[in-house]
Specification:
The structure is a homodimer.
Chain A: H1 11-18, H2 22-30, H3 37-50, H4 56-60, E1 68-73, H5 79-94, E2 98-103, H6 108-120, E3 125-129, H7 135-143, E4 148-153, E5 162-165, H8 167-180, E6 186-190, H9 197-212, E7 222-224, H10 229-240, E8 248-251, H11 254-266, E9 276-281, E10 294-297, H12 300-316, E11 324-326, E12 330-332
Parallel strand pairs in A: 1-2, 1-3, 3-4, 4-5, 5-11, 6-7, 6-8, 8-9, 9-10
Antiparallel strand pairs in A: 10-12
Chain A binds a DNA duplex through helix 2 and helix 4.
DNA sequence: AATAGTATTGCAAATGTTTTCATAAATTTG
DNA sequence: CAAATTTATGAAAACATTTGCAATACTATT
């Protein structure tokens, strides 16, 4: 009751209350098997009574893990990453870690700043989205020898352990789906690829796959839009009112595809009769729009959960080994695409 | 170069490299005005050369702030909160704080566990969504004297400082909008109100407003659905194929409203000619669906940004004063509602 | 040139834990 | 029953900082 008021409830206050030494209190938490059950009970009672809460900052100072993992994403806002964040968060929480989260708005310099900030907090590991990062970031990571993980993308050559999908393949799958359906006049709506290797890989793969079949995209049918339903809708509106409208739209991700769908509906076009639309991602909700969006499924939840699991394993393991996991992609044909063959 | 390898780059390594005492190095960071510019330069050079990164854990142990704020949300996944999280994150980042994020999946016991976890990390403050929390949580907060903030809801009587909107009013506005348009047969789709005071306040206000005009909702027109487009769509499908279909649907939030909209489209109903739909929230994307969703606008971004700003002020202030901010609601009439008058 | 003041710096204690080592008590073993 | 283990505890050093206090060097004042 004494120092109850003073707010100075630390391990020695508990020790005093339980009439043991601080060492014993500490041991009760960290190696309970080493302390007499009776003493343990006394201590736990004191802990309860005083409302003691362990101080991880002090633990961290001893080289113990801080119990935090930093995750830096481009944006929290959109459907795109919120699903991975949720899954990753849940997953590391299960392993007893807490999530430090930051976003950089597709600015790799800000990404660097965030990683640095996390390093000050002595995170036990830092997870980044994508494989492309500033030199400074890469240097920082290797120099500080901090466990790092690349989420979302997969590549054989990734220097960092990674858990994700092959975005190149995603682009190709989308293109091939449209080609198989007989489309030759294809419009493209992608975000700025600067600082966004996901979009970049997808787009180049699309061009490649299209090129293989001798299909090229005229300039006025290739347009840029950020990952925003509203702005994508505008861009699609413009593209669709172009003289010779394409028969299909291939969109950089599902957010853009939704924007395109709404644009088509606004113009009174019937999807998929007048226009086919395909997205990439299969975000929550993509299955439910009317008509259901055809898309390349990237298993965000899986990626997040798996990433969290593997990463915490990696961090807590004595001799961690490099890992890389490719998550499977799948073309989910719903109702926004149709065959041109009659 | 010596201990460059050993990874043991601490303040004394820097001090040694710069040929000064550790105190001076520390002062260079914390009270630069107290140290000679020339020495400062030497030290900064050493910091650069060794790649030193400050250790907040050690700082925290001295009663310095940890520089982290914990935010516990029901879910990260949905559009609902991702916008607030983003805004809050950006806002506290500006003030030099880092965000610890966790979700509880609408389980107040898990909320308690998350707050505790954050307390172990010695967060400088903890922000929660809504005003309803478990007794244990409330006790913990007052006992530990940790700055706490309620986000999203507003209420005069809130014991915690809060920044948010009046959900009671939101429900009322939605109901009144439909009443004004002449609707009397109104269907309701809301989530489980257990552990979700937002939904609870909205729903009770709706019944109240409807009751005032002598309108009551038959049981088969009031149904539950979680905040998921897909499940809401199912629920709406069921409700709309009921014998006597309502002329309007009032949905617990925009996610549900979108589900309802897609359900109507699937059934070939024209919105708003055959059916009016109103949501609550005005999430990103609600403006862009076709037809544009009529809804009660809750300024999520504003709330998040304001909350972050006020809270960091509160935390860093010497004599912090209790604050509560009510954010304005607005009925945004788009194209999913129409007047029944001919 | 002596005094008072100010600007810089270092020493050492303090912060809340964990852990190694030593010690004491209890238990097993021959 | 004595010797050898095992079990349970405490003392103290270590972790990476910050800061009050003291010491020194420098500048301004008379």
């Amino acid at each position: 009751m004494a120092n109850f008021q003073k707010g100075k409830v630390d391990i020695v206050a508990v020790a005093k209350a339980a009439k043991v030494s601080p060492s014993t209190v500490s041991r009760t938490f960290n190696h309970p098997d080493l302390v007499n059950p009776a003493t343990r009970k006394k201590i736990n009672k004191a802990v309860q009574r005083l409302g003691y809460i362990r101080n991880r900052a002090a633990q961290t100072m001893h080289g113990k893990r801080s119990g935090t993992i930093g995750l830096v994403v481009p944006t929290i806002n959109h459907a795109i990453f919120s699903e991975v964040i949720q899954a990753f968060s849940d997953s590391i929480d299960q392993a007893g870690f807490s999530l430090l989260l930051a976003s950089h708005g597709y600015d790799l310099d800000r990404e660097y700043a965030m990683v640095r900030k996390f390093l000050e907090h002595r995170v036990d590991g830092v997870a980044l989205v994508g494989l492309e990062h500033s030199d400074a970031t890469n240097r920082l990571i290797t120099q500080q020898k901090i466990p790092a993980l690349a989420i979302w993308n997969f590549s054989e050559e990734s220097p960092l352990p990674c858990v994700g999908a092959d975005n190149h393949l995603a682009g190709r799958l989308a293109a091939e789906h449209l080609l198989e359906l007989g489309h030759r006049d294809i419009g493209l709506i992608f975000p700025e690829t600067q600082g966004n290797d996901r979009a970049q890989h997808r787009l180049s793969a699309v061009h490649e796959a299209l090129g293989e079949q001798g299909v090229s995209v005229p300039d006025e049918h290739e347009t840029q839009a950020p990952y925003s339903v509203s702005q994508a809708k505008q861009a699609a509106l413009a593209l669709l009112t172009t003289p010779k409208r394409p028969t299909a739209l291939l969109c950089g991700n599902d957010v853009i595809a939704q924007g395109a769908l709404f644009a088509a509906q606004k113009l009174g076009l019937s999807v998929p009769d007048d226009l086919s639309i395909i997205g990439i991602g299969d975000f929550k909700g993509s299955a439910d729009v009317e008509p259901g969006l055809t898309t390349i499924r990237i298993p965000a939840e899986n990626i997040g959960a798996l990433a969290g699991e593997k990463f915490t394993d990696f961090i807590t393991s004595d001799d961690p080994e490099h890992f890389s996991i490719r998550c499977d992609l799948e073309c989910v044909a719903r109702q926004t695409t149709r065959s041109l063959a009659t």
